[in-house]
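Hi V.,

You were right to ask for the full record rather than a summary. Here it is.
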Amino acid sequence: MTERLEAEGSKQKGLYMWDDKSDNDDVTKIYVQYSPKGIQSIRFSYINSGKPIDGSLHGQSDNTYTQTFEINHLKHEHLESVEGYYTDDTGIQALQFKTNLRISEPMGYHDGCTKFILAIEGKKIIGFHGLSFEGRRVYSLGAYFTWITPTRIEAIGGKVGTKWDDGVDHAGFTKIHVRSGPKGIQYIKFLYVDKYGHLKDGPIHGSISGKGSIHLFDIQHVYKEYLVSVEGYYNDHDESGVIQALRFKTNIKTSELMGSNTGKKFRLAASEMKIVGFHGYAGKNLRSLGAYFTPITPTKLAWEGTALGTLWDHGAFQAVRKLSVFEIGGYITCLGITYDNDGKVEKRDHGMQDGYPGEEVELI
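Predicted structure:
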């Protein structure tokens, strides 16, 4: 279901209303032209039925600075939010876009402006609308949102017994209960966190009769801990395919091996994604296990220090490869950062390299 957020910015009379509509799958490229007067023009390219489509230009294209931000939907990247600044007199002055994987550099100037954010928890942007004035400048910006569709990895193990599915309407986990026995995993149970932060007790999958060894794995969802993979073993000698052992891994820690490492090994994982739900088959034991994945969203921490100088923001990359620090008289004069941008090396410097090179740290 599509949800429309009303345009934020200047609401002056006589402005032209434009609308890219909401019948798109994703946003794939954003073109922004800006000057000290504000955002002069904006244009979006969308994905519609798997094909790229160029949207209309909103505002006026001239000799002002143009900045482009690309979104790779083939790697499950999608646009989650827009942060912007405006004045009532001149409209939108600056914009910054955030995907589930990266954050763009700020586009424009925002001193003395009113801030706004276009975002809905658990949803992605698939279209934009707004106001402009006689083809000159962008005065307001709104967006269309839809639910993010999780990626499903099929259950591994036996396909006999009762089919179960905990669904995908979750933000994460706080606890996993597992009981193992001589014939494999007897049951599994998950304590979920829904998209509104409420705890949701999942059902037991398997049998609680008999005796076995209880295993508990806590996940600190409130501290941004999330589940990234599951590995285990299952009986591949007959169609029962009973799960023999499980091990869970978060972005912070790894659980013990719950059960016996006998049978065929398997792994449930997806690059740059986290687990939000499980499904499978169960009878007297857990027969198979599959998972639902959604892309991981980067966390932006506020800067520390004084507010003097020019504000800068590199956005988010796959990794930091190298840090270079220059200093003179005990003061940091320059910071150099080398990034891994989807296999390509990008270097950014801030400050002046007048001093002596200090400590240089290389991360591989």
